[in-house]
Amino acid sequence: MKLRHLIWKELWQRPTPMLTSLLAVTLGVTALVAIQNITVFSERKIAGDMESLGANVLVLPPSVTLQDYYGADMHGHTMPEEYVTRLALARLPGVENLAPKLCVEAEVDTIPVTLTGILPKSEFQAKASWQGLGMLGNAVGSDRGCCATAADTGEADNDPNSLATTRTIAELGDRDVILGRDLASQLGAKAGDTLPLLGEDFTVLTVLPSTGTIDDGRMFAHLHSVQDLSGAGPVVNVIEIMACCEDAAGGLITNLSAELPETRIVTIAQVVQTQIAVNGLMSRLSWVFLSILLLVGGASIASVMYANVTERRKEIGTLMAIGASRNFVTKMFLGKAAILGLAGGAAGFIVGTIVAAVLGPQLLGIHVRPMPILLGVGMATATIVAVLASLLPARRAAGLDPCLVFNDA
């Protein structure tokens, strides 16, 4: 009988102990694949969010605990709008845009919505004391606005859709409203429609293109209209700042803290570094979980193999008596272990990918796709562990003396 026939016969005749070992190996690879998938695609999402995010510095009330940079204005705390004036008059090097925002809860035809008040550039231009701010256009020879961006050309902001990319807009009427793509679909509204909001009628100026961020579910109106109609008064939740120069952004945080010591200054770099650290921790934990579970799986395989050798002493002795070599017996046990490792690695990859694909959108809002490289890693690792765990039992089986086996029987 050929070696592979013996191996398959053994696997099918004793399925229970083999399935137990297979399950332990599969769980280890599943943990590795699921966590690695979520970690990799989380990092890609961060990179995409950074590219689409206009503001890279936030000025927040001091009591705020930042959980999500992209929804940082949803904390409910406020600070005086006068802080915007102080920043504008300070003319700090590196500041390209200021974007104060106030979020309030409202309803449109009984549908709850998040209304975000924003201040258009026309409001900055209307105040002579703010005219020198670099975000209103770079003067020749000025040290303001040390790199050209869409935010400081002024042309792109004439389109209301620029709010989706630069997070600023040139003009916005007192009774105009801009809708995110998802909210517009929910309300069934389009440009030119009239919506009842905070006791007044607002005209939809435009529907923003999809951004894949929290803005898709919001509506935007003039900051002062939101303040007046909601009764919040001259306050804001957050002041977003675009600091386009890396060299300026380095010292900007210190300057901002000195200018507004009553606030909390947060940079996208801090948030990203924190998220990257979390991702790195998750990645390391995946290898820890894999190691623990594979050790358990390896111990299980070794135990099963030892028991198998004990149970099959007479069969092994018979094989050796009819001419099977020690090398043949060793290969038989190691081949069985290799099949368990390959099967466990493949099953773990499939299950881990499914788990990541299900949990990714629910927990982190990321879409996960299969990573073929993890299939190779999982199968190789599981196979090596299974074979190593079977070496001693295989050597024990190969070392049996047929004469002694039959005498004991």
UniProtKB/TrEMBL annotation:
- The record places domain MacB-like periplasmic core at 20-237
Please state what class of enzyme this protein is.
hydrolase
Entry's localization field: Cell membrane
Q: Would you name any one GO CC term?
A: plasma membrane
Q: Which InterPro entries match?
A: ABC3_permease_C (IPR003838), MacB_PCD (IPR025857), Macrolide_Exporter_MacB (IPR050250)
Q: Where are the transmembrane segments?
A: 285-307, 337-359, 371-392
Could you state a single Gene Ontology molecular function term?
Answer: ATP binding
The family classification in the record reads: Belongs to the ABC-4 integral membrane protein family.
Protein name as annotated: Macrolide export ATP-binding/permease protein MacB
Taxonomic source organism = Rubripirellula lacrimiformis
